[in-house]
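**User:** My hope is that you can spare some time for a protein that puzzles me. As I understand it, each token names a local backbone shape. I would be glad if you read both lines and explained how they fit together. The protein I mean follows directly.
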Amino acid sequence: NLGTASDSTPVTLKFGSKSVSYNIKVTGIQNIELIEEPESKLYELSALKNGFTPAGFKFKVNYADGTSNSDISPSLFKYLGDIQTAGKKTITANYYGYTVPLDIEIINVVDLEISTPEKEFRYNDVLTEDDFEIYYVYSDGSKKLSGDTETKTSLNISVDCNTKIPGNVTATVTGTEESLGISITKEVTVKVEAPVEMKVSRNPSKTTYAVGEQFDTTDMMVSLVYADTKAVTMNPEDYKIRFDSSEPGEKTVRIVSDIDGIDLSTTLTVTVDGSIIETDNSTPPSTTKSNNNGGSSTGLIIGIIAAVVVVIAVVVVVIVLSKKKKKA
């Protein structure tokens, strides 16, 4: 037992089944001193999750017999105090019941400083923290670059930004770390480049239609083209189809952007042959094509039938009048 001062402390040596004992003197501690401090006594709260480990502090233990030891590792001390919150703190270093105070400051991230990126983004680009230069602003006013080797804190960064509409748009950047009580949201303006052209970069698989049939977009790919000729594929919900299949012939399909700020369109040509869609009694025939300007096969059929009925009626009237004249 070397933790208690005593003039006669027994020590027992064992080797196999043999042992021998003798007494030693354990000299007591008179006090401990803090003999060296680091230049910086700042600690990031995130670095204290597993407890306080001093860096740059040096202690000296003075014994009752007048001797001292300044080579004792700080890891052999116990440290008591509030290390769960940011602020200036006094931590007590304890060595076998003898204590000395340590004045430190614990800092935590309280804000984000985000620079506006110089690059321009394009339709449907997904922004991440790598697209920004993000600085953590600490409670003492200091700043550290996110991801830098000197930064002990790491936040979960998420970015929400609609890059469909060209021009200056707002990106919302959020940094969180629940264990540190951090949740910070900042808004940054980013630039979204305007496309110069809209084109059908891959034709649909179906190019021939019956009268009254709706346009089929299967396999079709529509893209936005930028000044450097690079193209970006559009989502189907971001454009509208204009297609009229009410009459046979070569038909132009018009594809129009449905995005505010992108006033572009493109076309492709398909064939509407003379056939008519077969329908059953349970399902009424389609009267609109895609989402615009569709023709009506039902109207065409009704018109033909009506014309035939009129012709038959005229023939019957002529025959009746002819017979009356002969009788007269």
In short: The longest helix spans residues 297-327. The longest strand covers residues 265-276. The two ends are 150 Å apart (CA to CA). The chain is about 10% helix and 45% strand.
